[in-house]
Amino acid sequence: HPGLLHSQQDLERIREAIRHKTLPTYDGFKVLRESKYSKHDYRLRGPAVAWGRAPNIAIGQAADDATAAYQNALMWCITGDKKHATKTAEILNRWSETHQRMVGVDGVLAAGLQGFKFVNAAELLRHTDAGWPEPQAVRCERWFRNAIYPKIEHYAHFANGNWETAALQTNVAIAVYCSDRKMFESTMHYAVNGCGNGSIPNLVVYDSGQCQETTRAQHYAQLGLGTLANAAEIAWNQGVDLYGWNNNRLMR
User: Fold this and answer.
1) What's the pLDDT tens digit per position in 173-201?
2) Helix (H) or strand (E) holding 246
3) Contact 140/130 with Cβ under 8 angstroms?
């Protein structure tokens, strides 16, 4: 820990690059810094007792607050400004106190896409001396397990691969945040041998690297690859190489 999208070595590398204004990292940081979601005075839009998609219930509030939590956590880790840590804690505490369930036909996507940012924010805050009290971090564990995980625990065998890769990235993120070895192993097995469309062999359908959504539209294909890569990056930071599995199938 931290062991989701950003390891301690990653954060040190980013800080060093920004200190020396090394491109392209410094340009990327300027974009992050100017985002309205990176401001320590960001005003929460939520929380809500339920959030989900189709019908859309509090989806905008969750999407904005999840982005703000994650980006403020990054700003704290990069700049050391405690005001960003305080804002991240405020968002996580409010949602973990209030939110109880995922809803809607597309609830798997809501849990998989926005939930991922919430978990990454919590991981960064918990393991970077931000001063976040451990009881609040543990309450986040309960929130992730009881309100978000049940919607994505069994993936989405009935849907296209992007639903499942969204579920996969958040399942593995929750596993690491909760230090749950059994859950982590389960997600790794699903990534390489899952029966649904989101496992690596079922999403990357050709050895050439073409994906299940390639002939539909490129933004769908890129979403699936992006979420699968997020899962692979977490696995990498935990010592598991999904990128190179099966003759570099994902890397292709």
Assistant:
1) 999 999 999 999 999 999 999 999 999 99
2) helix 245-248
3) no
